[in-house]
What we know:
Blueprint: H1 3-16, E1 19-23, H2 33-49, E2 54-57, H3 71-80, E3 86-93, H4 99-112, E4 117-122, H5 129-136, H6 146-157, E5 181-185, H7 189-197, E6 201-203, H8 205-208, H9 212-222, E7 234-242, H10 246-252, H11 254-265, H12 287-297, E8 301-303, H13 305-319, E9 323-327, H14 333-348
Helix pairs in contact: 1-13, 2-14, 4-6, 7-9, 11-12, 13-14
Amino acid sequence: xxxxxxxxxxxxxxxxxxxxxxxxxxxxxxxxxxxxxxxxxxxxxxxxxxxxxxxxxxxxxxxxxxxxxxxxxxxxxxxxxxxxxxxxxxxxxxxxxxxxxxxxxxxxxxxxxxxxxxxxxxxxxxxxxxxxxxxxxxxxxxxxxxxxxxxxxxxxxxxxxxxxxxxxxxxxxxxxxxxxxxxxxxxxxxxxxxxxxxxxxxxxxxxxxxxxxxxxxxxxxxxxxxxxxxxxxxxxxxxxxxxxxxxxxxxxxxxxxxxxxxxxxxxxxxxxxxxxxxxxxxxxxxxxxxxxxxxxxxxxxxxxxxxxxxxxxxxxxxxxxxxxxxxxxxxxxxxxxxxxxxxxxxxxx
Length: 349
């Protein structure tokens, strides 16, 4: 096969690959949680028109820059303000909750918005140890009981009329409803579990790109066909900042770089989404900080429509992902909308 044939094949694959959105409802410097949630709904309404398949919201707690802590509530808000796009969690951190509560919450959402709700589950806390203690009191499991909790949750959603773990306890609403369950992960633990159970898997490439190939390989190798899936289905998270020019995109991407700098400094819980800057070099205290941030953002896709299209084609060629879920962290809402519009257009051209 010639390079030209391969290029055409990858262009066709990009055009046929579903695109979705990952949103943390970021609270910008100078803004409020209400502002962030209103922007979330506006973005969801726009990407629905642009053909995105699903809109997922992530659970994080005790973070000054994230408004999606009550994830099921925000999912309901977005679903009520849209028509066809699937809305779900990317994800709900199951160890933070009783499985019965999640079954009831998502059973309620599915009852209100039938055929549109996804339940993506993670096993990380989504916060720091003091907040974990406030959420669930016991912080000793470190997610080790995640498979058991998942089994309990699936039992509540089954149509058998009761949960085998908690005999006679039923999730109403929830029981018997078809709510797609996805496992989320940034390593091979959930990848193997998803494969073993025959569930779809979403990999957090937006912050753990270095583990992408390992996790996807583990998922596909461990996959066993189930009533849910006959073959593996992997969705890959990726950071994308798109603008009309490469230069403009690089400028806008400094907001995301500042977030990773906050993570490196341990100040992510107190920081809000920062406006872009002309130069990141002035913000680094030393070379170590710069190297750590640059390592975290090196797999982000930043650029013009042509650059974004080429990088996405390469990503799909290397990973063979079945779907991409895009996180586009941009300070100005108008520019964020434009980024997703460019992504939608670039993948269809």
